[in-house]
Design goal:
Number of helices: 6
CATH superfamily of the largest domain: Winged helix-like DNA-binding domain superfamily/Winged helix DNA-binding domain
Number of strands: 3
Largest sheet: 3 strands, antiparallel
Radius of gyration: 20 Å
Number of domains: 2
Length: 157
C-alpha cells in the first residue's frame, strides 16, 4: 500500500511541476494556462453563452463571468446580445485572442516535448497505457458514485 501512495504522490508532484512550468511559459507569451482554456474552448467550438462554457469546463458560473470580464477587458473575447434570449450574451474569441492563444501554444508544446523527451518511445507507450488505465478506473469510480447518489435521491423522494 505504501508504494501506491508514493507513486500517487509522485504523479501529483509531476502534475504540479509541469502545470507551473507550462503556466509560466504561456504567461510570458501573454496568456496564462487558465485563461487559455477559455480561449481554446471558444476557438474550437465557436461563440456560445457563458453558461455553456461553465458547464463544459466544469467551472462555477461566477468564475466564468469573472474570467470573461478580464478577457473582454484585454480584448481577447467579445460579448454580443443573444438573439434568442435578450438577457443572455454570446461570447466569442476575437482575432487578438486567436493570435495570443497561438503565440502561447508554441512554448507550451515545446516545453511538453522537452519534458517527455526523457522517455524513449517504448517508455512513452507504456506510460500512455498506464495513465489510460488509471483514467478508465477514475471514470468507473465516478460513474459508480454518481449512480449511488442518484439512487439516494430516488429513495429520498
Amino acid at each position: 500500500m505504501k508504494k501506491t501512495f508514493e507513486v500517487s504522490d509522485r504523479l501529483f508532484e509531476l502534475y504540479h511541476r509541469v502545470h507551473r512550468l507550462v503556466n509560466e511559459s504561456m504567461t510570458e507569451e501573454g496568456v496564462s494556462l487558465a485563461r487559455s482554456k477559455f480561449l481554446f474552448f471558444l476557438s474550437k467550438l465557436g461563440p456560445c453563452r457563458s453558461t455553456d462554457i461553465a458547464c463544459a469546463l466544469n467551472f462555477a458560473p461566477r468564475t466564468v463571468t469573472e474570467a470573461i470580464d478580464g478577457l473582454e477587458r484585454d480584448r481577447l473575447v467579445m460579448r454580443k446580445p443573444d438573439p434568442e434570449d435578450r438577457r443572455a450574451k454570446i461570447v466569442s474569441i476575437t482575432e487578438t485572442g486567436r493570435v495570443v492563444l497561438e503565440a502561447a501554444e508554441h512554448p507550451r508544446k515545446q516545453l511538453i516535448e522537452e519534458i517527455f523527451s526523457a522517455l524513449d518511445d517504448e517508455q512513452l507507450d507504456q506510460l500512455y497505457d498506464i495513465v489510460s488505465k488509471l483514467v478508465e478506473k477514475t471514470d468507473e469510480i465516478r460513474r459508480r458514485k454518481e449512480e449511488a447518489e442518484g439512487a439516494e435521491v430516488a429513495v429520498a423522494r
